[in-house]
Amino acid sequence: MRKFSFRRLTSLGLMLLLGVFAFFFLTNDFGLIDIQKTAIVVGVGVDRNDEGFRITAQLTVPLKSDQGQQISAVEVSGDGATVGDALTAISATTGWYPRLTFCELIVLGEQLVQNDVYAALEYFLRNENVSDNALVAVCEGDAERFLSERTPTNDINTLATKKVLSQEAKLAGITAPVSLREFSADYFGEASSGYLPFIRTLEQASESQPPQSQGGQGGEDGSQSKSLFDASATALFYQGKQVGRMRSEETQVFCMLTNKIRMASYPTECSGISYTLGLRRVKPSMQVKKENDRFRFTVSLEAYAIMLDSNVSQTIREIASSEKVDADILSAAEQSLTDRIRALIALSRETKCDFFGVRESIAKKYPREAELLGDDFLQDVLFSVRVEIKNLF
What is the DSSP string of 132-192? Predict the structure, then answer.
């Protein structure tokens, strides 16, 4: 009898629990109303204006089409004395509350970085909803205009920009992407130096396409203006202001010296012929030592090369032995890399941007001497460059 009663009570408890779940399921909207009032921000652009800051948020919007539901993007802007004030203005004028949990790209306008750049980034570092891994970049012109551009590869240009700043592009030496956490560490570090990828917009010829249901800037005939993005240049910062810029070829060499490159295509010239070498197993090294009363900073680079291409036709035997590169071509590549590294050293001295981390290296090995270094310490440092390129086999 007791056993029967226990089973009966258990059954009644389960039925009661199911009833409670059914009640909440039928009466609760599970936050759907809140979701409808929340805008998912995938990218943010920051510009300076007379009022302070102008924030442009790129929002993802679901659209219905004949093929089913698709995702497009719209841009909304707001002005304010601070970044947080501008974001509040977006909510006040649109009725959408910008949610930054999924924001993975922060674009800074070209004019903004002429002043203290961190006045625009401080809000994102403080905001616990913003990921520290969000990418930060500088764009050519205004960030508002940049976010409104459409690309032939993806109508949501934030996603297209993320592909340009991808880890694959970094490991190939094409661009030097930087996260919010990395740039903050450089900004508040001992050298007060940092760098960000600089994105240029490459205009594409307008073409007539069938009308699309996705977002885009086009007329009734379906003509759209498309753009591509080039992030091979790098903006340099010292004490929060942009002080210079690396060109694309300098960015490539800088990536070789600061990252583990899988394979980089490196152009060189020998005897009037242009070649493209594939550099593998790139091994950079940077060391500092004290010589008398001065520091010597040695930049070394070792790599293995294969032949990828040339601007002249070659024999079938030469094509078959691509892993064997002539010594003269290797020597020309070594000299070219050496010249570009020396150009980077000169750029670092000129801009005071310590992107090689010389001060940090000195502080680790000679902490007492590092405390006495001035703002122009790079002028007193002796630099040495060593480049060695070998055949892969």
Answer: TT-EEEEESS-HHHHHH---SS-SSHHHHHHHHT-HHHHHTTS---EEHHHHHHHHTSTT-
Quote the pTM value: 0.81
CB crowding 327-365: b at 16 or more within 10 Å, else e: eebbebbbebbbebbeebbebbbebbbbbbbbbbbbbee
Beta bridge pairs of residue 135: 105, 179
Q: How many residues does the chain have?
A: 393
Contacts of 163 (CB under 8 A, 6+ apart): 153, 154
User: Tokens in use for 45?
Assistant: 């652009």
pLDDT by residue, tens only, the chain of 393 residues:
454 455 665 676 677 777 766 665 555 544 433 444 556 788 999 999 888 999 999 887 655 555 544 556 788 899 999 999 998 898 888 777 777 888 999 999 999 999 889 999 999 999 888 899 999 999 999 999 999 888 876 667 888 899 999 888 888 889 999 999 999 999 998 889 999 999 999 877 655 454 443 444 444 444 456 788 999 999 999 999 999 999 999 999 999 999 878 788 999 999 999 999 999 999 999 999 998 889 999 999 999 999 999 998 877 877 777 788 999 999 999 999 999 999 999 999 999 999 999 999 999 999 999 888 888 999 999 999 999 999 987
Torsion sign over Cα 106, 112, 118, 123: negative
HSE-CB at 350 with a 13 A cutoff on CA atoms is: 12
Q: What is the distance between the alpha carbons of residues 218 and 145, in angstroms, rounded to a whole number? A: 16
Residues β-bridged to residue 384: 298
3-state helix, strand, coil in the chain (%, to 5): 35, 35, 30
Distance CA 348, CA 359 (A): 12
Q: Is 366 exposed, middle or buried (0-12, 13-18, 19+ CB in 10 A)?
A: middle
Pairing of strands 294-310, 68-80: unpaired
Residue 358's region, left for phi above 0, alpha for psi from -120 to 50, else beta, is alpha
Burial of 137 (0-12, 13-18, 19+ CB in 10 A): buried
Q: Which two tokens stand for residue 211?
A: 């009308």
